[in-house]
Amino acid sequence: MRVILTVLLVLTAGCGRGADAPATGPAAVRVTVTRDYGSVVLSVHSAPAGESALNGLRRVTRVGTSYAGRFVQSIDGLSGDRSAGVDWLYFINGIAPDSGAADVDLHPGDREWWDRRYWSDLVQTPVAIGAWPEPFVHGYGGHRHPVTVTGPACASTISDALRAAGARIVTGAADYRIEVETFAQAATELGDWRGRGLTVSLQDGHVMVYRGRGGRVALPAAHALIAGYQPPVAPGHAVVLVVAGDSEASACDAAATLATHPSRIADTYAVALDAAGTVIAAGGRP
Description:
This protein has two domains: 2-118, Ferric Hydroxamate Uptake Protein, Chain A, domain 1 (Beta Complex), CATH 2.170.130.30; 129-282, Chitobiase, domain 2, CATH 3.30.379. Helices cover 17% and strands 29% of the residues. The protein has six helices and 16 strands. Helix 3 (156-165) runs parallel beside helix 6. It is globular, with a radius of gyration of 18 Å.
C-alpha cells in the first residue's frame, strides 16, 4: 500500500494558487473532469496556458488537497477513497505524467483530463485514447512530434484526419506512431495488459476488456480494438496507438471510426469494437 500511495502522490501531487480568469481561443487548455474511466463527464472548462496543471484545474473547479497540499483529494466536492482504491488521476494530452500536477506546465492547445477511478489493479495507465487527436497534434510538454501511420491503404484515413488537425505526418520511423494491423500482428504488443496499463487487450486472439472491480473479461462480440501504450521511456517521449482487428477489414472499419467519428471514443482509455466499427465497450467501465 505504501508503494501504491507513493505513486499516486507523484501522479497528483502539487500545490498552487487559484485564480479566476476566462480563457478562450485555440490556445486555451481544455480541462475535463470525469469519473469511472470517463463514463461520466462531470465538467468541461477552458483554462489559460502558461501555468501548472494544478493551477489550471483550480481556475475552473474547487480543489481539495491532502498531505500538505501534495495530493488532489477532491474536485468540486467529490473525494477519492484510498481505502477503496479510488482516487483522482490525470492525463495531459492523453499521457499520464510522472510528476505532480504542480510541476507539469500547460501549453497552448493542451487537454488536461482528471478522472476519479478505481486503480487497485492498474495504478498506471500511461496512455488513454480519449484525448484524440492528442497527443499526435500538440505532443507533450510543449514539444510536437512527427507522426507516422502504418498499415493497409485504409490507414490513410487516419493520416488525412491528423494532417487536417495539424499533425505533422512523416514516412519512416517516428517515436509517435499509429499502427493499423491484425490481431496476429498486434498479439505481442497488446498481450501484456498489466505491464502496459491496457484496459482493452488481446489474449489468445480474443479481445479482453478490463471492467474495474469486475476484472478482465473476454468480449466475444468484439472484432477490433483501439488502444494506446507507451514504450519504456519517459512520459511523452514515445506513444504507440494500435488499431487492430481480427481481419484487415475489421481493422479498417475501426480506423474509419477513429478518423471520422472521434466523438465515439472521447474520454475513453481504450475501446472494443464490433466487425462494423461500432464501439461496444470501453476499458475500465462496468
